[in-house]
Amino acid sequence: MVRVMPDHTDEPPATHAPKPRILTGDTPTGRLHLGHWVGSLETRVALQDEYDCYFLLANMHAYTTRADKASEIRESTIEITKDWLAAGIDPEKSTIVLQTEVPAIAELTWFLAMLVPFNRVMRNPTLKTEIEDKGLGDSYSFGFPMYAVGQCADILAFRPDLIPVGEDQVAHIEMCREVARRFNQVYCGVDPQTEDAGYPAAGGLFPIPAAKIGRVARLVGTDGKHKMSKSLHNAIFLSDTPKEVKKKINAMYPGQSRNPDDPGDPTINPVFDYAEIFMRDKAQVSELKDRYRRGDNLGDGHVKAAVIEAVNELLEPMRERRAKYEGPNAEAEVVEIIRAGTDRANKLAEETLAMAKDAMALNFGRRELRL
């Protein structure tokens, strides 16, 4: 329930966390896989102590192409939260936020949509790629391109300094940066010549957030050709069992046909990509490459075995953490974590919206959220 409350000038201003802030998230379209891990998730886990972290479950965006699959979206939302918790996202350190329970995001989306031309939205290369990849043609909903603006609101509602994302999301982040500059210039009087880092000091409401790209821009899937994707059935999921991991990696095509005694080229073998990414012992990786080039009685199976061991070593702690959320009351526990984080997030998002409306001469009152 949303109630409009009078503006109490005697209330103390909200305090800001001393640590710089992060906002990023995922649209619930299914379980997370190794591509998500190396693209962004491992960065989020690593930065929890250094930053004030907000991680968004973008379930509203899932409706742009799956509005008729509400139950699936709910299930995916729960599963992704489990993946986050299993990966090491700590709800005591980080705030997990459910998009549809933060009304300030939807309201801010409307205001920001007035600051970006429609043709600029449709030129967004990530949006164009999604239309092509999902075969939407001209049949996509009116709300589908709106989600590109919605992502700007997702981010700016929390006024972050940094956005850990995969390489495919950089275009969205750049549009968000454009919208933040435009708002600050139009409503906060910031000089357009101001350097990005100087916007807050110049009176801007929104920092101009920077993207932080994960260590692997594009992880090839188990088909050895395309980017890892659930829809292409070439993914190794964070929740896969050891047997599933072994089966998927053993089925990978090495990019060439050869006998174990023949020289091979590791640069065209996707299994070696996995070796470089997931094996901790880099000297062992170099040795495997050298032996492979020499045809030193090293078959693809030897390399795959080393990669299987490394991937399962990575995933085993995640399996153990995930097991805590697989019991009969697991969903209720996960939902409570989501609710607690969303309650904290609403305080910040409502503060941002109030400040934005003040800047836009819409300061007619204050509202209090009761969820």
Task: Provide a concise account of the structure shown.
With 371 residues, the chain is mainly alpha-helical. It has helices at 34-46, 59-66, 70-87, 103-113, 118-122, 125-133, 143-156, 170-188, 242-250, 270-278, 282-294, 300-323, 330-359, and strands at residues 2-5, 21-26, 52-57, 95-98, 162-165, 210-213, 366-369.
Structure, explained:
The protein has 371 residues and is mostly helical. The protein folds into 2 domains: 2-218 and 328-369, HUPs (Rossmann fold, 3-Layer(aba) Sandwich); 242-323, Tyrosyl-Transfer RNA Synthetase (Orthogonal Bundle). Helix content is 49%, strand content 9%. It has 13 helices and 7 strands. The protein has helices at 34-46, 59-66, 70-87, 103-113, 118-122, 125-133, 143-156, 170-188, 242-250, 270-278, 282-294, 300-323, 330-359; strands at 2-5, 21-26, 52-57, 95-98, 162-165, 210-213, 366-369. The strands form 3 sheets. A 3-stranded parallel β-sheet has the order 2-3-4. The protein has a two-stranded antiparallel ribbon with strand order 1-7. A two-stranded parallel sheet has the order 5-6. Strand 2, helix 1 (34-46) and strand 3 (52-57) form a beta-alpha-beta unit. Helix 4 (103-113) packs across helix 7 (143-156), helix 7 packs across helix 8 (170-188) and helix 10 (270-278) packs across helix 12. The longest helix has 30 residues, at 330-359. It is globular and about 75 Å long. It starts with a strand and ends with a strand. Mean pLDDT is 89; it is low at 1-17.
